[in-house]
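Collaborator request, handled under Task 6.
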Amino acid sequence: MSSAERVSPSTPGNSGVAGDDDHKVPPVAEMARLIGLSIPAACMPDVLKNTALLQGYADLLGGFALPDDCEPAYEYEP
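Structure tokens returned to the collaborator:
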């Protein structure tokens, strides 16, 4: 079993990392290994929670349908 499988939210004891089992969290440990990033074991639960939170935001934005006739925003003014 890889370290990514051990820390994924689908493993027993880690379900509901962000309080919502509908979102799939990417294998954080495996992704970190691929880019040469080391995540201390003590930080992994918080990294998983943040990853699940960000995945929820990504799913929310990805599910927002924009019609093809939307006016583009050429200039942003807060």
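The cover message to the collaborator said: "The two ends are 49 Å apart (CA to CA). Residues 56 and 62 are 10 Å apart (CA to CA). Please let us know whether this matches your experimental observations."
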